[in-house]
Design a protein that fits this description.
This protein is of the alpha+beta class. It has one helix and four strands. The chain has a domain of 35 residues.
């Protein structure tokens, strides 16, 4: 049987958590729609009024 590599020492909570410091989730960015003032993701058609870049894209 082949021997598998095994850690020699237990990884401390500080070392483990500092390695994971970049994995946090961020809240979605939202901007106000210039037409209806509802919040929407940037660079997307507004789901409330259907406008994008000052033009009516679809009927709501």
């Amino acid at each position: 049987m082949a021997k598998h590599p095994v850690p020699k020492k237990k990884t401390s909570k500080a070392r483990r958590d500092s390695r994971r410091s970049h994995q946090a989730l961020s809240a979605p960015k939202l901007v106000a729609c210039p037409e209806c003032k509802s919040m929407k993701p940037p660079h997307t058609v507004c789901p409330s009024c259907g406008y994008y870049d000052g033009r009516k894209v679809f009927e709501v």
